[in-house]
Protein backbone atom coordinates (compact mmCIF):
# COMPACT_ATOMS: atom_id res chain seq x y z
CA UNK A 1 0.00 0.00 0.00
CA UNK A 2 1.32 3.48 -0.83
CA UNK A 3 2.25 5.72 2.05
CA UNK A 4 1.05 9.26 1.74
CA UNK A 5 3.81 11.00 3.71
CA UNK A 6 7.51 10.12 3.53
CA UNK A 7 9.83 11.58 6.16
CA UNK A 8 13.58 11.28 5.81
CA UNK A 9 15.25 11.11 9.22
CA UNK A 10 13.93 9.91 12.60
CA UNK A 11 15.46 12.73 14.65
CA UNK A 12 13.34 15.22 16.56
CA UNK A 13 12.25 17.02 13.38
CA UNK A 14 11.07 13.86 11.64
CA UNK A 15 9.45 12.39 14.75
CA UNK A 16 7.47 15.50 15.68
CA UNK A 17 6.26 16.16 12.13
CA UNK A 18 5.39 12.47 11.76
CA UNK A 19 3.40 12.45 14.98
CA UNK A 20 1.42 15.60 14.14
CA UNK A 21 0.52 14.27 10.70
CA UNK A 22 -0.35 10.82 12.00
CA UNK A 23 -2.60 12.43 14.63
CA UNK A 24 -4.33 14.23 11.74
CA UNK A 25 -5.02 10.91 10.01
CA UNK A 26 -2.12 10.63 7.57
CA UNK A 27 -0.13 7.47 7.25
CA UNK A 28 3.53 8.24 7.67
CA UNK A 29 6.64 6.33 6.66
CA UNK A 30 9.94 7.45 8.21
CA UNK A 31 13.22 6.22 6.76
CA UNK A 32 16.32 6.53 8.91
CA UNK A 33 19.84 5.79 7.68
CA UNK A 34 21.17 4.99 11.17
CA UNK A 35 20.34 1.94 13.27
CA UNK A 36 18.54 4.05 15.87
CA UNK A 37 15.95 6.79 16.21
CA UNK A 38 16.41 10.25 17.85
CA UNK A 39 19.11 11.60 15.51
CA UNK A 40 21.87 13.48 17.26
CA UNK A 41 19.97 13.54 20.55
CA UNK A 42 20.30 9.75 20.77
CA UNK A 43 21.09 8.38 24.24
CA UNK A 44 21.91 4.81 25.20
CA UNK A 45 22.97 3.02 28.37
CA UNK A 46 26.56 1.87 28.51
CA UNK A 47 26.34 -1.91 29.08
CA UNK A 48 29.50 -1.87 31.22
CA UNK A 49 28.66 0.95 33.66
CA UNK A 50 24.89 1.46 33.25
CA UNK A 51 25.49 5.17 32.61
CA UNK A 52 23.15 6.92 30.14
CA UNK A 53 25.45 8.19 27.39
CA UNK A 54 24.68 11.13 25.10
CA UNK A 55 26.14 9.38 22.07
CA UNK A 56 26.56 12.44 19.80
CA UNK A 57 27.61 14.85 22.53
CA UNK A 58 25.90 16.36 25.58
CA UNK A 59 22.30 17.52 25.23
CA UNK A 60 20.60 19.66 27.89
CA UNK A 61 16.98 20.62 27.37
CA UNK A 62 16.27 24.29 28.07
CA UNK A 63 13.49 26.53 26.81
CA UNK A 64 11.25 29.52 27.40
CA UNK A 65 8.63 27.96 25.14
CA UNK A 66 6.05 26.56 27.55
CA UNK A 67 4.17 24.82 24.73
CA UNK A 68 7.30 22.87 23.79
CA UNK A 69 8.05 22.15 27.45
CA UNK A 70 4.54 20.69 27.86
CA UNK A 71 5.00 18.70 24.63
CA UNK A 72 8.20 16.98 25.77
CA UNK A 73 6.83 16.40 29.27
CA UNK A 74 3.81 14.66 27.76
CA UNK A 75 6.22 12.09 26.32
CA UNK A 76 8.74 11.71 29.14
CA UNK A 77 9.16 12.86 32.72
CA UNK A 78 11.81 15.58 32.87
CA UNK A 79 13.86 15.84 36.05
CA UNK A 80 15.46 19.10 37.19
CA UNK A 81 18.92 19.66 35.82
CA UNK A 82 21.05 22.82 35.76
CA UNK A 83 24.03 22.98 33.46
CA UNK A 84 26.96 24.34 35.48
CA UNK A 85 30.04 24.29 33.31
CA UNK A 86 33.62 24.50 34.56
CA UNK A 87 36.65 25.54 32.55
CA UNK A 88 40.37 24.95 32.81
CA UNK A 89 42.65 27.76 31.74
CA UNK A 90 46.34 28.17 32.50
CA UNK A 91 46.26 25.17 34.86
CA UNK A 92 43.42 26.54 37.02
CA UNK A 93 39.72 25.73 37.20
CA UNK A 94 37.07 28.43 36.82
CA UNK A 95 33.31 28.76 36.67
CA UNK A 96 31.56 29.43 33.34
CA UNK A 97 29.90 31.42 31.88
CA UNK A 98 32.23 34.15 33.15
CA UNK A 99 30.57 35.44 36.30
CA UNK A 100 31.56 37.27 39.47
CA UNK A 101 33.24 34.16 40.88
CA UNK A 102 35.29 33.73 37.68
CA UNK A 103 36.32 37.40 37.69
CA UNK A 104 37.24 37.45 41.38
CA UNK A 105 39.19 34.18 41.19
CA UNK A 106 40.92 35.04 37.93
CA UNK A 107 42.06 38.50 39.03
CA UNK A 108 42.49 37.61 42.75
CA UNK A 109 39.85 40.18 43.76
CA UNK A 110 36.81 40.37 46.04
CA UNK A 111 34.78 42.74 43.89
CA UNK A 112 31.07 43.37 44.30
CA UNK A 113 28.86 43.54 41.17
CA UNK A 114 29.18 47.27 40.42
CA UNK A 115 32.90 47.21 41.16
CA UNK A 116 33.39 44.23 38.87
CA UNK A 117 31.50 45.96 36.08
CA UNK A 118 33.71 49.03 36.37
CA UNK A 119 36.81 46.81 36.60
CA UNK A 120 35.95 44.94 33.39
CA UNK A 121 34.94 48.14 31.62
CA UNK A 122 38.37 49.54 32.44
CA UNK A 123 39.96 46.52 30.71
CA UNK A 124 37.78 46.74 27.61
CA UNK A 125 39.28 48.25 24.47
CA UNK A 126 36.86 51.11 23.91
CA UNK A 127 38.80 52.34 20.89
CA UNK A 128 37.01 49.53 18.99
CA UNK A 129 33.77 51.32 18.17
CA UNK A 130 32.17 48.88 15.76
CA UNK A 131 33.58 45.37 16.31
CA UNK A 132 33.64 43.34 13.10
CA UNK A 133 35.43 40.18 14.17
CA UNK A 134 35.07 37.80 17.10
CA UNK A 135 38.41 39.01 18.42
CA UNK A 136 37.42 42.68 18.28
CA UNK A 137 34.11 41.89 19.94
CA UNK A 138 35.86 40.07 22.80
CA UNK A 139 38.50 42.79 23.25
CA UNK A 140 35.80 45.44 23.13
CA UNK A 141 33.69 43.87 25.86
CA UNK A 142 35.99 41.87 28.17
CA UNK A 143 39.51 43.10 27.41
CA UNK A 144 42.64 41.12 26.57
CA UNK A 145 43.12 39.09 29.77
CA UNK A 146 39.73 37.33 29.78
CA UNK A 147 39.80 37.04 25.99
CA UNK A 148 43.16 35.26 26.03
CA UNK A 149 42.21 33.01 28.95
CA UNK A 150 38.70 31.93 28.01
CA UNK A 151 37.86 32.73 24.38
CA UNK A 152 40.90 32.74 22.13
CA UNK A 153 42.22 29.16 22.33
CA UNK A 154 38.80 27.57 22.77
CA UNK A 155 37.33 29.38 19.78
CA UNK A 156 40.35 28.57 17.65
CA UNK A 157 39.98 24.87 18.48
CA UNK A 158 36.24 24.85 17.95
CA UNK A 159 36.20 26.66 14.60
CA UNK A 160 39.66 25.76 13.29
CA UNK A 161 40.61 29.36 12.54
CA UNK A 162 41.81 32.46 14.34
CA UNK A 163 39.06 34.46 16.12
CA UNK A 164 39.94 37.44 13.93
CA UNK A 165 38.63 35.44 10.96
CA UNK A 166 35.25 34.88 12.60
CA UNK A 167 32.35 37.33 12.61
CA UNK A 168 31.61 39.35 15.75
CA UNK A 169 28.08 37.92 15.86
CA UNK A 170 29.36 34.56 17.18
CA UNK A 171 30.06 36.19 20.55
CA UNK A 172 27.15 37.60 22.47
CA UNK A 173 27.30 41.33 23.17
CA UNK A 174 28.50 41.05 26.76
CA UNK A 175 29.38 37.43 27.59
CA UNK A 176 29.90 38.19 31.30
CA UNK A 177 27.63 38.16 34.36
CA UNK A 178 28.27 40.48 37.28
CA UNK A 179 26.69 38.18 39.85
CA UNK A 180 27.30 34.60 41.03
CA UNK A 181 24.74 33.02 38.69
CA UNK A 182 26.55 30.10 37.03
CA UNK A 183 23.51 28.51 35.36
CA UNK A 184 24.73 28.12 31.77
CA UNK A 185 21.28 28.68 30.31
CA UNK A 186 18.96 31.51 31.26
CA UNK A 187 15.73 29.73 30.35
CA UNK A 188 12.64 29.25 32.49
CA UNK A 189 12.40 25.50 31.86
CA UNK A 190 15.43 23.25 32.04
CA UNK A 191 15.79 19.53 32.63
CA UNK A 192 16.78 16.08 31.50
CA UNK A 193 14.45 13.31 30.30
CA UNK A 194 14.44 10.64 32.98
CA UNK A 195 14.76 7.74 30.54
CA UNK A 196 16.94 9.56 27.99
CA UNK A 197 16.08 11.31 24.73
CA UNK A 198 15.75 8.15 22.66
CA UNK A 199 12.97 6.84 24.90
CA UNK A 200 11.27 10.24 24.58
CA UNK A 201 11.48 10.12 20.78
CA UNK A 202 10.21 6.51 20.84
CA UNK A 203 7.14 7.77 22.67
CA UNK A 204 6.61 10.52 20.05
CA UNK A 205 6.85 7.90 17.30
CA UNK A 206 4.53 5.48 19.07
CA UNK A 207 1.42 5.93 16.91
CA UNK A 208 -0.33 3.36 14.72
CA UNK A 209 -0.12 5.74 11.75
CA UNK A 210 3.71 5.82 11.84
CA UNK A 211 6.05 3.23 10.41
CA UNK A 212 9.81 3.64 10.96
CA UNK A 213 12.42 1.84 8.84
CA UNK A 214 15.91 1.93 10.41
CA UNK A 215 19.13 1.29 8.45
CA UNK A 216 17.29 2.69 5.44
CA UNK A 217 18.98 5.58 3.63
CA UNK A 218 16.70 7.54 1.35
CA UNK A 219 16.55 6.45 -2.28
CA UNK A 220 14.65 8.62 -4.83
CA UNK A 221 12.22 5.82 -5.76
CA UNK A 222 10.89 5.88 -2.19
CA UNK A 223 9.22 9.18 -3.02
CA UNK A 224 7.35 7.72 -6.01
CA UNK A 225 4.20 6.85 -4.11
CA UNK A 226 4.51 9.62 -1.51
CA UNK A 227 2.11 12.52 -1.44
CA UNK A 228 4.79 14.71 0.17
CA UNK A 229 8.38 14.33 1.41
CA UNK A 230 9.83 16.00 4.51
CA UNK A 231 13.62 15.96 4.29
CA UNK A 232 15.59 16.36 7.55
CA UNK A 233 18.90 15.21 6.04
CA UNK A 234 21.54 17.67 4.79
CA UNK A 235 20.16 20.08 2.18
CA UNK A 236 23.13 19.59 -0.16
CA UNK A 237 22.89 15.79 0.16
CA UNK A 238 19.38 15.90 -1.37
CA UNK A 239 21.02 17.20 -4.56
CA UNK A 240 23.96 14.77 -4.38
CA UNK A 241 26.22 17.72 -3.37
CA UNK A 242 26.44 18.56 -7.05
CA UNK A 243 27.04 22.28 -6.49
CA UNK A 244 29.62 21.52 -3.77
CA UNK A 245 29.49 20.71 -0.07
CA UNK A 246 28.12 23.03 2.58
CA UNK A 247 30.86 23.38 5.19
CA UNK A 248 30.42 21.87 8.64
CA UNK A 249 32.56 21.21 11.69
CA UNK A 250 32.52 17.65 12.89
CA UNK A 251 33.38 16.21 16.31
CA UNK A 252 35.48 13.22 17.33
CA UNK A 253 34.71 11.72 20.71
CA UNK A 254 37.47 9.80 22.48
CA UNK A 255 35.56 7.61 24.91
CA UNK A 256 37.12 6.34 28.12
CA UNK A 257 35.86 4.87 31.37
CA UNK A 258 36.99 5.12 35.00
CA UNK A 259 35.73 4.02 38.37
CA UNK A 260 34.21 6.65 40.67
CA UNK A 261 33.95 10.33 39.86
CA UNK A 262 36.40 11.48 37.18
CA UNK A 263 35.98 15.25 37.17
CA UNK A 264 33.14 16.08 39.59
CA UNK A 265 30.95 17.78 36.98
CA UNK A 266 29.27 17.02 33.66
CA UNK A 267 31.21 19.42 31.42
CA UNK A 268 34.76 20.71 31.80
CA UNK A 269 35.94 23.04 29.02
CA UNK A 270 39.64 23.25 28.15
CA UNK A 271 40.36 26.78 26.99
CA UNK A 272 44.10 26.59 26.27
CA UNK A 273 45.14 26.20 22.62
CA UNK A 274 47.87 23.69 23.62
CA UNK A 275 45.26 21.18 24.86
CA UNK A 276 43.97 19.57 21.66
CA UNK A 277 40.43 18.83 22.86
CA UNK A 278 37.74 21.40 23.65
CA UNK A 279 36.02 19.70 26.58
CA UNK A 280 35.49 16.51 28.57
CA UNK A 281 31.97 15.35 29.26
CA UNK A 282 31.28 12.97 32.16
CA UNK A 283 27.92 11.54 31.26
CA UNK A 284 26.69 10.26 34.61
CA UNK A 285 26.51 13.80 35.96
CA UNK A 286 23.69 14.50 33.47
CA UNK A 287 21.55 12.11 35.54
CA UNK A 288 22.32 13.14 39.14
CA UNK A 289 19.37 11.07 40.37
CA UNK A 290 21.17 7.87 39.32
CA UNK A 291 24.09 6.15 41.07
CA UNK A 292 26.84 4.35 39.18
CA UNK A 293 30.23 3.08 40.32
CA UNK A 294 31.73 3.33 36.85
CA UNK A 295 31.87 6.46 34.73
CA UNK A 296 31.92 7.18 30.98
CA UNK A 297 33.75 10.19 29.60
CA UNK A 298 34.07 11.78 26.16
CA UNK A 299 37.08 13.86 25.20
CA UNK A 300 35.75 16.10 22.43
CA UNK A 301 37.83 17.20 19.43
CA UNK A 302 36.58 19.54 16.72
CA UNK A 303 37.73 19.54 13.09
CA UNK A 304 36.61 20.23 9.52
CA UNK A 305 33.90 17.82 8.38
CA UNK A 306 34.92 15.47 5.55
CA UNK A 307 32.53 13.69 3.16
CA UNK A 308 32.26 10.61 5.41
CA UNK A 309 31.99 12.47 8.73
CA UNK A 310 28.89 13.40 10.70
CA UNK A 311 28.01 17.06 10.09
CA UNK A 312 27.64 18.83 13.46
CA UNK A 313 27.97 22.62 13.32
CA UNK A 314 27.16 24.55 10.12
CA UNK A 315 29.90 27.08 9.41
CA UNK A 316 27.70 29.70 7.69
CA UNK A 317 30.49 32.07 6.69
CA UNK A 318 30.29 34.16 3.52
CA UNK A 319 31.41 31.32 1.23
CA UNK A 320 28.96 28.81 2.69
CA UNK A 321 26.10 31.29 2.54
CA UNK A 322 26.72 31.85 -1.17
CA UNK A 323 26.52 28.11 -1.80
CA UNK A 324 23.53 27.84 0.52
CA UNK A 325 21.74 30.51 -1.53
CA UNK A 326 22.27 28.42 -4.67
CA UNK A 327 20.85 25.28 -3.05
CA UNK A 328 17.91 27.21 -1.61
CA UNK A 329 17.08 28.69 -5.02
CA UNK A 330 17.16 25.24 -6.48
CA UNK A 331 15.08 23.70 -3.71
CA UNK A 332 12.43 26.36 -4.19
CA UNK A 333 11.83 25.17 -7.75
CA UNK A 334 10.82 21.72 -6.47
CA UNK A 335 7.31 20.58 -5.65
CA UNK A 336 6.43 17.89 -3.14
CA UNK A 337 9.40 18.23 -0.79
CA UNK A 338 9.95 20.39 2.30
CA UNK A 339 13.37 20.77 3.94
CA UNK A 340 13.31 20.79 7.72
CA UNK A 341 15.47 20.67 10.83
CA UNK A 342 19.06 21.51 11.54
CA UNK A 343 20.48 19.79 8.43
CA UNK A 344 17.66 20.49 6.00
CA UNK A 345 17.91 24.23 6.68
CA UNK A 346 21.66 24.34 7.47
CA UNK A 347 21.24 26.13 10.82
CA UNK A 348 22.27 25.37 14.38
CA UNK A 349 18.99 24.66 16.17
CA UNK A 350 18.50 23.82 19.81
CA UNK A 351 16.08 21.00 20.53
CA UNK A 352 13.26 23.27 21.68
CA UNK A 353 13.50 25.35 18.50
CA UNK A 354 13.63 22.17 16.43
CA UNK A 355 10.41 20.94 18.06
CA UNK A 356 8.67 24.31 17.70
CA UNK A 357 9.60 24.50 14.02
CA UNK A 358 8.53 20.91 13.43
CA UNK A 359 5.12 21.62 15.00
CA UNK A 360 4.77 24.77 12.85
CA UNK A 361 5.78 22.85 9.72
CA UNK A 362 3.24 20.09 10.31
CA UNK A 363 0.47 22.61 10.97
CA UNK A 364 1.45 24.57 7.87
CA UNK A 365 1.18 21.36 5.85
CA UNK A 366 -2.25 20.55 7.26
CA UNK A 367 -3.49 24.08 6.49
CA UNK A 368 -2.03 23.90 2.97
CA UNK A 369 -3.77 20.61 2.30
CA UNK A 370 -7.05 21.88 3.72
CA UNK A 371 -6.84 25.01 1.56
CA UNK A 372 -5.58 23.19 -1.55
CA UNK A 373 -2.39 25.21 -1.48
CA UNK A 374 1.12 24.09 -2.36
CA UNK A 375 3.49 23.32 0.48
CA UNK A 376 6.69 25.41 0.22
CA UNK A 377 10.21 23.96 0.15
CA UNK A 378 10.99 25.84 3.36
CA UNK A 379 8.63 26.83 6.14
CA UNK A 380 11.67 28.24 7.97
CA UNK A 381 14.04 30.09 5.68
CA UNK A 382 17.68 28.93 5.83
CA UNK A 383 18.95 32.45 5.05
C1 LIG B 1 27.33 18.60 19.77
C2 LIG B 1 25.92 19.09 19.86
C3 LIG B 1 25.37 19.38 21.09
C4 LIG B 1 24.09 19.83 21.20
N1 LIG B 1 23.60 20.12 22.43
C5 LIG B 1 22.35 20.60 22.55
C6 LIG B 1 21.85 20.95 23.83
O1 LIG B 1 22.54 20.85 24.84
N2 LIG B 1 20.59 21.43 23.90
C7 LIG B 1 19.78 21.57 22.79
O2 LIG B 1 18.64 22.00 22.92
N3 LIG B 1 20.23 21.21 21.57
C8 LIG B 1 21.49 20.74 21.42
N4 LIG B 1 21.95 20.39 20.19
C9 LIG B 1 21.05 20.48 19.02
C10 LIG B 1 20.28 19.17 18.72
O3 LIG B 1 21.17 18.14 18.43
C11 LIG B 1 19.34 19.44 17.53
O4 LIG B 1 18.38 20.39 17.92
C12 LIG B 1 18.57 18.21 17.03
O5 LIG B 1 19.42 17.11 16.83
C13 LIG B 1 17.92 18.53 15.70
O6 LIG B 1 17.12 17.44 15.28
P1 LIG B 1 16.89 17.14 13.75
O7 LIG B 1 15.87 16.06 13.68
O8 LIG B 1 16.63 18.38 12.99
O9 LIG B 1 18.32 16.62 13.21
P2 LIG B 1 19.12 15.27 13.54
O10 LIG B 1 19.07 14.96 14.99
O11 LIG B 1 20.44 15.43 12.90
O12 LIG B 1 18.30 14.15 12.76
C14 LIG B 1 18.37 13.98 11.36
C15 LIG B 1 18.28 12.50 11.07
O13 LIG B 1 18.19 12.32 9.65
C16 LIG B 1 18.92 11.14 9.32
N5 LIG B 1 19.28 11.22 7.91
C17 LIG B 1 20.09 12.13 7.31
N6 LIG B 1 20.20 11.87 6.00
C18 LIG B 1 19.44 10.76 5.74
C19 LIG B 1 19.14 10.03 4.56
N7 LIG B 1 19.65 10.35 3.35
N8 LIG B 1 18.35 8.94 4.66
C20 LIG B 1 17.82 8.59 5.87
N9 LIG B 1 18.06 9.27 7.03
C21 LIG B 1 18.86 10.34 6.96
C22 LIG B 1 20.12 11.21 10.25
O14 LIG B 1 20.72 9.92 10.39
C23 LIG B 1 19.50 11.72 11.55
O15 LIG B 1 19.10 10.66 12.38
C24 LIG B 1 23.28 19.99 20.04
C25 LIG B 1 23.82 19.71 18.79
C26 LIG B 1 25.14 19.30 18.69
C27 LIG B 1 25.73 19.08 17.32
Automatic annotation (TrEMBL):
SUPFAM superfamilies recorded: FAD-linked reductases, C-terminal domain, Nucleotide-binding domain
UDP-galactopyranose mutase C-terminal domain boundaries: 149-348
Example of a GO cellular component annotation carried by this entry: cytosol
Cofactor(s) named in the record: FAD
Pfam families attached to this UniProt entry: GLF (PF03275), NAD_binding_8 (PF13450)
GO molecular function: flavin adenine dinucleotide binding; UDP-galactopyranose mutase activity
Key words of the record: FAD, Flavoprotein, Isomerase
PANTHER family for the chain: UDP-GALACTOPYRANOSE MUTASE (PTHR21197)
Entry's family note: Belongs to the UDP-galactopyranose/dTDP-fucopyranose mutase family.
UniProt name for this protein: UDP-galactopyranose mutase
Organism: Pararhodobacter marinus
UniProt lineage: Bacteria, Pseudomonadati, Pseudomonadota, Alphaproteobacteria, Rhodobacterales
Amino acid sequence: MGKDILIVGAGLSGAVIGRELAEAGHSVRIVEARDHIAGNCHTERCPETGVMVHVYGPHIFHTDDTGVWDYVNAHMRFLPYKNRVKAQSGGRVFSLPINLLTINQFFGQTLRPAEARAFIEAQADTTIEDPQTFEEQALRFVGPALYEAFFKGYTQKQWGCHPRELPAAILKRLPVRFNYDDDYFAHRHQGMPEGGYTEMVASILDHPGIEVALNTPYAPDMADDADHVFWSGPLDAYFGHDLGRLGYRTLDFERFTEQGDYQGCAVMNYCDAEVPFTRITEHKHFAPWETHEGSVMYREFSRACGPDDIPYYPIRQVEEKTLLRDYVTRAETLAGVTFVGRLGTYRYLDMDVTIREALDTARHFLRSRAGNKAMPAFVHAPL
